[in-house]
Amino acid sequence: MSFFDFKQRDTQVKAGSILLSEPFLPDVNFERAVILVAEHNEKGTIGFVLNKPSETLLSHLLPATQSPLPVYVGGPVSDNVLHAIHNVKSVGGEPIAKNLFWGGDINELLKIKKHLPWMRFLVGYSGWAVGQLDAELEEGAWIVCEETNLDVILKAEDDRMWREAVRSLGGRFKIYSNYPVDPRLN
Predict the structure, then answer these.
(1) What stretch of H or E contains 139?
(2) Would you say residue 66 lies in a domain?
(3) Is 47's pLDDT higher than 80?
(4) CA-CA distance, 142 to 169, in Å (whole number)?
(5) Residue 9 covered by a domain
(6) pTM for the predicted model, two decimal places
(7) Total number of domains in the chain
(8) Is residue 181 domain-resident?
(9) All residues at 6 or more sequence positions from 88 whose CB lies less than 8 Å from its CB, including other chains
């Protein structure tokens, strides 16, 4: 059981939902993580950590692009696969939420990057087998946010994204947003 009771029985996970790790989740891969759920179905769940930039630039992975864009760590699964999450319908990709897509034509994305309000290139993803995420939700490991919180979340800086997302939930969550990563250092 989590130190905090984050159970939200009335909130259903679906593509476009945001998962926020509870403040003291003891997993370095998901410490203060903001995860965009891209798929949630009878096969399991796929999501991407949005707020964990790596030290790698896109040009390190795709030298021909000469792109200085950062690459994010989407999660610990298949960390040798590059993914794109963006808000440009014309370049294709699987719809995740209103005006948000997974995949598409990377060359087209790079051509119009300077005009995009939001885009992430990520290596790896976060995955859950059938029932695994439900069990973690029951344990209180995650806070589920509806799509309506996406605007707040996507506008936040990487290092403030988790805090802003938790704060956007209001009520008791506003208080949690200020907890230190390690309470022993408080």
Answers:
(1) helix 132-139
(2) yes
(3) yes
(4) 13
(5) no
(6) 0.88
(7) 1
(8) no
(9) 101, 104, 108, 109, 112, 116, 119
